[in-house]
Amino acid sequence: MPAPSYSSRLRWDLAPNRLTRLLDEKRSAGAAILDLTESNPTAAGFVYPSDQILAALADPRALRYHPAAAGMPLARAAVSDYYSGRVSPDRILLTASTSEAYAFVFKLLADPGDEVLVPRPSYPLFDFLAAFEAVRVVQYPLVYHGASNGNWTIDFDALARSITPRTRAIVLVNPNNPTGSFLKQNELAELIALCREHSLAIISDEVFSDYALDPDPSLVHSLTEVTDVLTFCLSGLSKVAGLPQLKLGWIVTSGPAIERLELIADTYLSVSAPVQYAAPVLLGLRTQMQDQILARVRANRAFLATQIGPTSPWRLLATEGGWYAVLEAPRIQTEEEWVLSLLSADGVLVQPGFFFDFEREAFLVISLLTPEEVFREGVRRILARA
User: Fold this and answer.
1) In a 10 Å sphere around its CB, with 0-12 CB exposed, 13-18 middle and 19+ buried, how is residue 129 labelled?
2) Which residues, listed in sequence order, are joined to residue 34 by a DSSP beta bridge?
3) CATH number at residue 243
4) CA distances from 225 to 37, 106, 204, 230 (A)
5) Are residues 338 and 228 part of one domain?
6) Cβ contacts of residue 198 below 8 Å, gap of 6+?
């Protein structure tokens, strides 16, 4: 058979990296591993109201197909209720996931070869999501100032320099993954002014916005009320209700953009009927899950902070929300060497900072969603290494 010709949209490198290979070897050998990367709430030991969830998914109306491009009215109304009615249902379009929401918005805004600006550090999925739409990713930096100086902020000078005639949107992850930093009120005004000057849209990923660790009036939790520039706010059940297996996301926008998005969605009709009929119940149960998750995240972070004294060679970076913590490791070896040695010698799995495009070394990213007993033992083993 002649070699097939594949798309050049992606670098199709399917070879596993060194960490993946080592992890596979350890698991194949039956080694006990303390997984400090756990980000799946359904595997993290939380108590779900299973009877209510299953009953909601058994709605007999789901046996009949009623296609609705923007989503069923009752599901869109449930999302509107999630925003306490501040967002009308006619501004909401349902998707199967936040990833699909990105794909729809990129299709709407960009031609092949156009650019979107994304934060650095941040979640590494953007390169793939953009590449699938033949869109180019350009990074703009977030700058860390420390807990006493506003934590992380956008480098607006660098952001402005990154804009070209092909730039179509600025992506904001709020709070950021993995830094946990929220947009600040003063930053929002500057961001809007920059987008107005260059006729750019804002794409605000708000999946972790319910997980602020402490009350702080300087933080912007959502951009759903921004009207000065075209704005798309993305979220979904995966984080809001701790239900990543029930594929339901959404986009909040305004004006004629919703009609154009609806045309895109009508081509796919990807959101299933059962999850739409269940949406009012599932979103109504979110507080039960969020309370458990926040309790776990706060307890794990508090324990981590107590383990790192003022003379420790380790540093815990400040955060304002989300499910992750960032540790700055002693620079006695590279990040790759840190994660490989921790897994090989200590049975502890963490993620290196370069997975998230940190500008320098050495950072380790760990999940605060990890069950507390596993988290504490894993942290002890990490900190004992230096």
Assistant:
1) buried
2) 348
3) 3.40.640.10
4) 34, 21, 12, 11
5) no
6) 163, 167
Angstrom distance (rounded) from CA 301 to CA 15: 34
What is the number of domains present in the chain? 2
CA distances for 234 relative to 105, 226, 237, 304, angstroms: 10, 14, 11, 31
Q: Assess if residue 9 is contained within a domain.
A: no
**For strand 363-367 and strand 351-352, is the pairing parallel, antiparallel, or unpaired?**
antiparallel
Residue 323's alpha-carbon distances to 151, 209, 242, 311, 363, in angstroms, are: 16, 11, 12, 26, 16
Residue finishing a domain among 235, 259, 284:
284
DSSP conformation class of 347: -
- Residue 34: enclosing H or E segment and its boundaries? strand 34-35
How is residue 356 annotated by DSSP? G
Structural domain containing residue 343: 18-47+287-383
Alpha-carbon distance of 128 to 134, in angstroms, equals 10
Please tell me whether residue 56 adopts helix, strand or coil conformation: helix
Question: pLDDT (tens digit, 9 = 90+) per residue, 143-183?
Answer: 998 866 658 999 999 999 999 999 999 999 999 999 999 99
Cβ contact 75:276 at 8 Å: yes
Contact 339, 351 (CB under 8 A): yes
Q: Specify whether 98 is located in the same domain as 206.
A: yes
Query: The tokens of 146 are what?
Result: 């420390």
Contacts of 120 (CB under 8 A, 6+ apart): 139, 140, 141, 142, 357, 358, 359
Residue 331: give its domain's CATH number: 3.90.1150.10
> How far apart, in whole angstroms, are the C-alpha atoms of residue 293 and residue 211?
8
The reported pLDDT for the residue numbered 148 is 65
**Secondary structure of 222-259 in the HEC alphabet?**
CCCCCCCCCEEEEEEHHHHCCCCCCCCEEEECCCCHHH
3-state secondary structure of 138: strand
Residues 335, 358: Cα–Cα separation, whole Å:
11
* Average pLDDT of the chain to the nearest whole number: 95
Residue 12 inside a domain? The answer is no
Which of 284, 318, 351 finishes a domain?
284
pLDDT confidence of 228, banded at 50, 70, 90?
very high
